[in-house]
Amino acid sequence: MNLKNLLTTFLISAFLAGCASQAERKRAGLITDAKEQTAVTAPAAKNAPVTPDYKYVIGPGDTLDVFVWGYKDLSVTVPVRPDGKITTRLVEDMIASGKTPTELARELELRYQVYVKNPTVTVTVNKFIGAPSQQIKVVGGGANPRTVPYVNGMTVLDVMIEVGGLKKFSSGNKSVLVRTTNGTRKTYRIRLHDLLKKGDIGANRDVNPGDIIIIPESWF
Question: What are the residue boundaries of the structural domains of the chain, listed by start?
Answer without folding.
Answer: 63-127, 132-215
